[in-house]
Amino acid sequence: DFGHSSELAFVVEPSDDIAVQEQPLILYCQVEGIQPITITWRKNGVMIVDSENAFMLANGSLYVSRFQRLRGDGSSDEGEYDCMAQNHYGLVVSRKAKIQAATMSDFHIHPQNAVVEEGGVARFQCQIHGLPEPVILWQKNRVPVNTDNERYTLLPKGVLQITGLRAEDSGIFHCVATNIANVKFSREARLTVSGSHSTVYKDPMILVGPENLTLTVHQTAVLECIATGNPRPIVSWSRLDGRPIGVEGIQVLGTGNLMISDLTVQHSGIYVCAANKPGTRVRRTAQGRLVVQAPAEFVQHPQSISRPVGTTAIFTCVAQGEPPPQITWLRNGQILETSDHIKLKNNNSTLSIYGINQADEAIYQCIAENSAGSTQASARLTVLWADGLPGPPQSVKAETVSATTIQVSWKEPLQNTKEIIGYVLHIRKAADPVEMEYQEAVSKSTFQQLVTDLEPSTSYSFYIKAYTSRGASKASEVTVVSTLGEVPAMPSLFIKVINSTAIQATWEPSIKLGQHQGFKLYYRKVHLSQYTGPVLLPGNVTAYNITHLDASVVYEVKLLAYNQHGDGNSTVRFVSLRETVERTVLNPPCDCMKDEQNNKTSTTGIIIGIHIGVTCIIFCVLFLMFGYRGRLLMCKNVQEQLSTPQIPRNQRSATGLVLNGAARRDRDDRDLNGKQLDMNELERLFPASPSQEHQEKGRTVAHSPPTAHNDTQISTLPLDEFSIIEEQPEPPLPKTPTAPAPDHGPTNEG
Q1: Long-range contacts from 227-230, C-beta under 8 angstroms, 24+ separation
Q2: Where is the composition biased (Basic and acidic residues) (predicted)?
């Protein structure tokens, strides 16, 4: 409900100025906002009281009747002035205006006599300090120099350059400095032009290079560069960082001076002047640094806000400038002091006010200032307060329950309790900033809260607010209490056997165990009740060797961490030195450890032995069975070869394989009925050497799948031999058959 005009703000602020001695001075200040508004002035932070010499006008401006740089009493009208405006809602302060007296010193550099040959370059210079910066003009023979002559160049800093000298340039030169304070003349200098233009070659040379300059944005920079040589060198400019100089606002004065108008921060850099001999790469260089400063200006202004009591107000103020500005905050014209509930962050760009109350209602100002200037912006904080809100909760108490738990209790407010819908408990570590606070909501009928998951040995602050649908009450009184201490956590213990009489106990670094003072180490033989120890070890020790042990028994090792609050839980490990020399034993305690010496037989070894024995028996049975069946079937195939008609290979099919298998089953049946093949007759018809017989047996076994146990599967193996024999040239029957080539599977013949 506040418009723009209702905010107390400056329409016109005082600005920097240079005052003339004994002349009047006016500093302007105009403010808008809700009346009544009171305006006052300060100089160097001290209130100005109206007097005959200085008083405030009706429009709020300050009038100084006769400006004095130095009065008889030692005072001065020079200084920093600011304007303060105040109304019912707060107070604002204007930017600081720097007021200086106009002055002019004596010349500290005068022009010097010069003798230069015809065609050369002459340079005169004079320097003088003053406020404002004096304007320097040149006279020749007491007549102003003709600036229309292209060979005459006047630079702003009091330099006169004359190029391509001629005889008529000879004369007497001096400069005249002028500002609002005074007019002064320099000493005179004579220029003599001698001889005629020389044709002797001279290397290029820079007589005067650019100076280092520090200027403010929108000013004009002139970088001087005068070069001589024969032939006349060409002057060029570049930036040391390689960036282009550009063309906008750039102008060359005379034969090589660089002028940059309307400076910006981007013009800052190192500029290089180069004198180049025409048509060659011969060059001479000189460089100067240009620094362009920018007064502070706001990128983001703080905005006026309205917030209910107990909430957080945040103001943001972002400024830029060169050099980067410093930000300061004021509250109703006074330097803002930070506290637990007032914080400045992000290089003072963010102002946060936590848990606001009516006392925080004010006008807050952001002052941005650097060496090039200052600026200010203001914003108002309005604290909303509804009538009839509950009072603050009463009798807040906090009691420690454990190392991680605190119980907080309170009583309801003294007034306006009917509309309460609940309470909010605000919790924070006492050492943490306010922004680290967190809350827990509590129902309106509950007047205590158990706060858990806290840290041991830590102080916490608590306060309560009662909430209604229209807002929150004021905060209760703050109570601070600490949690109890806690014993350290249980360490992780590892045991390593070093040799038959020594072990090493190691554990994790103590940083993981919380607050502690050290460790206690115990050990004993498991059949004894008495421990050896404790061995007290400091908190930075993580290993300990236990020696002179008995290798024939089992040991129990126990480790715990302790602190000022007592001993923590212990970690227990059991270790035997008989079986191994280097291994870690992490067995939990059990009742069976007393029988350990009687159970040395390895169960794993017994199981492996049984498996190996059974496997050997199975392989022996298979070898005998398949070796016998393979020889018998080979003989049967020879009989079939004598009695079965030969079938062309291309007429064979899967059906033929099945039929042959069926025929063999029939013959097998007949054999079982007593019609046995005469083995002696077969050996007479088909004599075979012992080595060939062995090869046949080996081939039969090799082609037989290890899992084949039926006649049908085995009967396919001789078919391969049968077909292979068919491909050989027909030998006489008495001869031994050719050994078949190895085959990789019975299905290939189909």
Answers
A1: 227/255, 227/256, 227/273, 227/275, 227/284, 228/120, 228/121, 228/202, 228/204, 229/202, 229/203, 229/204, 229/205, 229/275, 229/277, 230/198, 230/199, 230/200, 230/201, 230/202
A2: 663-673
Q: Which fold has domain 105-264+274-282?
A: Immunoglobulin-like (2.60.40)
User: Residue 731 is inside which H or E element, if any?
Assistant: none
Which among 272, 297, 155 is positioned nearest to 217, based on CA atoms? 297
Q: Is the peptide bond before 648 cis (omega within 30 degrees of 0)?
A: no
User: Which of 3.30.450.40, 3.90.580.10, 3.20.20.300, 2.60.40.10 is the CATH number of 397-482?
Assistant: 2.60.40.10
Beta strand 54-56 with 62-64 is antiparallel
Distance, in Å, from the CA atom of 492 to the CA atom of 490, rounded to the nearest integer, reads 7
Tokens found for residue 278: 């025409």
3-state secondary structure of 676: coil
pLDDT value of position 580: 54
Instruction: Tell me the C-alpha to C-alpha distance, in Å, between residue 613 and each of 187, 295, 362, 620, 626.
Output: 126, 98, 98, 11, 20
CA distance 93 to 541: 63
CA 86 to chain centre: 45
Run of H or E including 679 = helix 679-685
The two tokens of residue 288 are 């100067």
Neighbours of 326 (CB within 10 A): 15
Cα–Cα nearest to 449, from 485, 413, 390, 396? 396
Instruction: Provide the β-strand partners of residue 503.
Output: 497, 546
Q: CB within 8 A of 24, min separation 6: which ones?
A: 63, 64, 65, 66, 67
Residue 186 structure tokens = 């320099």
Domain boundaries, the chain: 9-101, 105-264+274-282, 301-384, 397-482, 494-577
| Residues 50 and 4 sit within 8 Å (Cβ to Cβ) | no
Token pair listed for 303? 């905005």
Looking at residue 630, its pLDDT comes to 56
DSSP code at position 742: P
DSSP conformation letters of 80-133: EEEEEEEETTEEEEPPPEEEEE-EE---SB----EEEETTS-EEEE-B--EESP
C-alpha gyration radius of the chain: 55
- Condensed to tens digits (0 to 9), the pLDDT of residues 693-725 reads 434 433 333 333 333 333 333 333 343 443 334
pTM of the model: 0.56
Which superfamily does CATH assign the domain made up of 494-577 to? Immunoglobulins (2.60.40.10)
Distance, in Å, from the CA atom of 732 to the CA atom of 48, rounded to the nearest integer, reads 146
Matching residue, tokens 């001479």: 284
**652 burial level (CB within 10 Å; 0-12, 13-18, 19+):** middle
Average pLDDT of the chain is 80
The pLDDT tens digits for 449-474 are 999 999 888 999 999 999 888 778 88
Which residue, among 453, 310, 309, 475, has the nearest Cα to 396 in the 3D structure? 475
> Is the pLDDT confidence value at 125 over 50?
yes
pLDDT tens, 474-522? 889 999 999 988 778 888 899 999 888 899 999 886 555 556 688 999 9
CA atoms within 13 A of residue 709's CA, in its CB half-sphere = 3
H or E stretch at 227: strand 226-230
Tokens encoding 506: 């190691």
Q: Which two tokens stand for residue 471?
A: 């807002």
Max Cα–Cα distance, the chain, nearest Å: 160
Q: How far apart are CA 453 and CA 621, in angstroms?
A: 72
The rounded distance, in Å, linking the Cα atoms of 437 and 462 is 10
Distance CA 325, CA 315 (A): 18
